[in-house]
């Protein structure tokens, strides 16, 4: 349903008072757009606060463009993850209003047109090799309207680099910590802050890192409370969860 009819009751009342025809009401009640190869969830924003996100990997350029068209018709924000350069160029030629963030491999609505929250999410990255995952988290949160502060290359092998920023990190409302190797940075940060920490293991590391499995297990076994672990290389999940925390805080403060 559109914002005009934010409940079944308001929709039925509109039909009853002849403000809306039965055929128009049926369109309003349609919860997804059938494209044949995909069913676009048109009620995601009402249920979860943000529209359906498109996972770009494995989809053709033509499929992505058709999905984008459906979302734009319904005036939704666009967020497409895991998009390579070739697909991104095709999409942005078709929809020049969209922007490609190459490091994050994300195509999305321009961040310039998105109002940001007062509260902030910290995106903390252990090393430069982890930047693609960190940027996926950061851009995801920003598209969802979150103010983000980036703290990059602050891994435990030079922990003084983290301590140089710890006051700014503590002033944020949630942290997303991205690390490969042994993943120790997440435990360190969780032991220094009083807000939720989302730990994202990356597949960066030498042989025994096992493409991130060692990092994942290390983060799961953290002794520091207040830390929740995402899947390997899942920067999107970290950014999304952080956005949910900040938006919840913003909504709560608006009720006071």
From TrEMBL:
Stored Pfam families: AIRC
- Domain named PurE is located at 119-251
Signal peptide residues are none
Report the superkingdom from the record: Bacteria
Q: Which InterPro entries match?
A: P2CMN_synthase_LarB, PurE_dom
- Molecular functions (GO terms): hydrolase activity
**Protein's GO biological process:** 'de novo' IMP biosynthetic process
Q: What is this protein called?
A: Circadian phase modifier
């Amino acid at each position: 349903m559109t914002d005009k009819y934010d409940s079944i009751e308001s929709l039925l009342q509109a039909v009853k008072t002849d403000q809306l025809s039965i055929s128009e009401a049926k369109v309003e009640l349609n919860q997804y757009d059938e494209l044949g190869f995909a069913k676009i969830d048109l009620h995601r924003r009402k249920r979860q606060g943000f529209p359906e996100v498109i996972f770009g990997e494995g989809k053709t350029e033509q499929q992505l463009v058709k999905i984008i068209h459906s979302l734009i018709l319904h005036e939704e924000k666009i967020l497409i993850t895991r998009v390579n350069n070739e697909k991104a160029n095709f999409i942005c030629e078709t929809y020049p209003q969209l922007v490609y963030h190459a490091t994050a491999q994300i195509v999305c609505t321009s961040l310039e047109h998105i109002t940001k929250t007062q509260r902030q999410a910290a995106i903390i990255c252990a090393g430069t090799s982890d930047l693609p995952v960190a940027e996926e988290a950061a851009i995801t949160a920003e598209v969802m309207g979150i103010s983000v502060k980036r703290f990059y290359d602050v891994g435990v092998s030079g922990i003084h680099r983290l301590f140089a920023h710890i006051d700014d990190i503590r002033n944020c409302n949630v942290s997303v910590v991205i690390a490969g190797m042994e993943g120790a940075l997440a435990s360190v940060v969780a032991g220094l802050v009083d807000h939720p920490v989302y730990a994202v293991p990356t597949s960066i590391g030498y042989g025994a890192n096992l493409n991130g499995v060692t990092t994942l297990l290390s983060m799961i076994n953290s002794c520091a409370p207040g830390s929740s672990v995402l899947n390997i290389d899942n920067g999107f999940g970290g950014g999304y969860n952080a956005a949910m925390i900040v938006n919840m805080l913003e909504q709560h403060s608006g009720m006071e």
